[in-house]
Amino acid sequence: MSAPLPLDGIRVIEFSHMVMGPSCGLVLADLGAEVIKIEPPGKGDRTRYLTSSGTGFFPAFSRNKKSVQLDVADDTDLALLKKLIDTADVVIENFRPGGLAARGLGYEDLSRTNPGLIYCSLKGFLSGPYENRTALDEVVQMMSGLAYMTGPPGRPLRAGAPVNDMMGGMFGAIAVMGALRQRELTGKGQYVQSALFENAAWLVSTHMLQQAMTGVAPPSMAAGKRAWGVYDVFHAADGIDIFIGVVTDRQWEIFTSLLKRPELLSSDYATNTLRAAARETLIPLVQSIVGTYPVAALESMCEAAGLPFARINQPGDLYEDRHLVESGGLLPLTLPDGSTTQVPALPIQLGGTRLGVRHDLPAPGQHTEEVLAALREPAAD
User: Fold this and answer.
1) What is the pLDDT at residue 97?
2) CB–CB of 137/164 below 8 Å?
3) pLDDT at 381 over 60
4) Tell me: the pLDDT tens digits for 331-364?
5) Over 70: is that where the pLDDT of 380 sits?
6) Which entry of 45, 137, 165, 232 is annotated as an active-site residue?
7) What CA–CA distance (Å, rounded) separates 312 from 243?
């Protein structure tokens, strides 16, 4: 972007690992903040070396950041780190409650010398009875009912992405930006928090209100109970699965006119409420009809008619997604082994422009001297 980014001039010190803290730092970094990730000496953040489902954590959330290595257990490094924080606008951290405070790196200590500091803690729980519990994304999905709503009846299933970690990081970034704006009005910094459990509770708020309004606990989404008659995955004639949604009476008119089958015009299916109640007969009927078309024909039909649809993809298919590729939704990235790939950009536009990559993934400690040089005491003559 040629214009200054929204957070140009904001310095952020990031103490983080895994997903929640790094995703918060990523949002701030992509928006233009100078985000300095503090890593232990040597190999750096252990997240860099995760395998299996954690392999992508570090490269997904570490662009546009600088890496500085300091040992918080070393008095000299600790003093230098506190000097660095005195130059910062924001600190973000997602370590165990009280861990950084024990090193004099909590909000109370740091705000004494930097009263404008905004300190964001990303935790399992906000203040309350559970605040000192250890939590994971999977833990709060189970606690909140999100896993219950995702899995088949009687088989709770976590979502297929770290949704609470990533959204918790996002809400942490929102809290930071709100506190930055408030600092403009008051001149004072503050302590802000975001948490996994409260994020998960927010995600299931519609289900909670459904129960409050109907008096009936909602069944899991996998149980097939929907507010709409046609809102399912169907098998095309060539064996490819496609989701089709028909969520208004007008869309039903369009859908039936496209398929031209008199069975769909039954009075049993005349309104959305009737269609939702008749799903046990309607869905097999629709499958018997759409299953005679190849998937490409169904996609063309739905797109031309303005009906919601989606082929059932795997994450890796997005590298070839026409919309992401042509719209700039994938950003270039160099992986630690030197190979190149792409990563999804933040899902926002500013003035019609996507936020890009200013700095590739940092090597461990790559920016230590650059960042700390101005803070070191000059050598005696």
Assistant:
1) 84
2) yes
3) no
4) 999 999 999 999 999 999 999 999 999 999 999 9
5) no
6) 165
7) 7
Mean pLDDT, rounded, of the chain: 95
Place of tokens 């700039």: 328
Q: What pLDDT does residue 3 have?
A: 81
pLDDT in tens, 211-220: 999 999 999 9
**Which pLDDT score is estimated for 378?**
61
Q: Verify whether residue 241 is a known catalytic residue.
A: no
**AA letter at 221:** M
What is the average per-residue pLDDT within 107-133? 97
User: Model's pTM, two decimal places?
Assistant: 0.93
Q: Can you read off the two tokens belonging to residue 303?
A: 């797109």
SS (H, E, C) the chain: CCCCCCCCCCEEEEECCCCHHHHHHHHHHHCCCEEEEEECCCCCCHHHHCCHHHCCHHHHHCCCEEEEECCCCCHHHHHHHHHHHHCCCEEEECCCCCCCHHHCCCHHHHHHHCCCCEEEEEECCCCCCCCCCCCCHHHHHHHHCHHHHHCCCCCCCCCCCCHHHHHHHHHHHHHHHHHHHHHHHHCCCEEEEEEHHHHHHHHCHHHHHHHHHHCCCCCCHHHCCCCCCEEEEEECCCCCEEEEEECCHHHHHHHHHHHCCHHHHCHHHCCHHHHHHCHHHHHHHHHHHHCCCCHHHHHHHHHHHCCCEEECCCHHHHHHCHHHHHHCCEEEEECCCCCEEEEECCCCEECCEECCCCCCCCCCCCCHHHHHHHHCCCCCC
**Amino acid at position 190, single letter:** Q
**Structure tokens that stand for 360 in this block:** 């590739």
